[in-house]
Amino acid sequence: MSNISFQIIPFAFIFVVVLFFLAKKKNKKKEVIITKEMPLIDYVEHTEFFENAEKKLIALKELYRQDLIDKNMYVKKTELVAQSISKLTGKNVRELVKTKDEHIYKRLKNNISEKIEKTPSKKHIGDLDKLISDVDKRIKMGLNYER
Fold first, then answer.
1. How far apart are CA 68 and CA 27, in angstroms?
2. R_g of the chain, CA atoms, integer Å
3. Cβ count near 60 (within 10 Å)
4. Which of 64, 101, 104, 128 could form a disulfide with 74 if both were Cys (CB 3.0 to 4.6 A apart)?
5. In a structure prediction context, what are the per-residue pLDDT tens digits for the chain, which is 147 residues long?
């Protein structure tokens, strides 16, 4: 009996150590790397395609306004154009508009912040004081001429 227990105890100990090792390895947290998607992918090579799609949509709009096509035909054809755009770009048309809007807002914010940084505020205060005093002198001179 003691002979068997001496043979089983090392295996049981190894089994418990392996269980703890696997449990420790399973709970190990992985670093999640978040990559920001570029807000605007350059579609320069597809400009001709986009211009043709825009012309088609304008033509469809005019046909619908003139009552030459019905509402169902107008919706079907615009959906076809939108599907062809989403096939080419891999994004939905709404997503493209949203990313373009975000890109424009970001550029506007950057331009405004650059203009704010470029304009020195202390210089304008000194110039403003001088301007006010010059205006006061002109007013006094004007009053002197009227007398």
1. 66
2. 37
3. 19
4. 64
5. 566 666 666 777 777 778 777 777 655 555 555 544 444 455 667 788 888 888 999 999 999 999 888 999 999 998 898 888 888 877 777 887 788 888 888 888 888 888 777 766 655 556 777 888 888 887 777 666 555
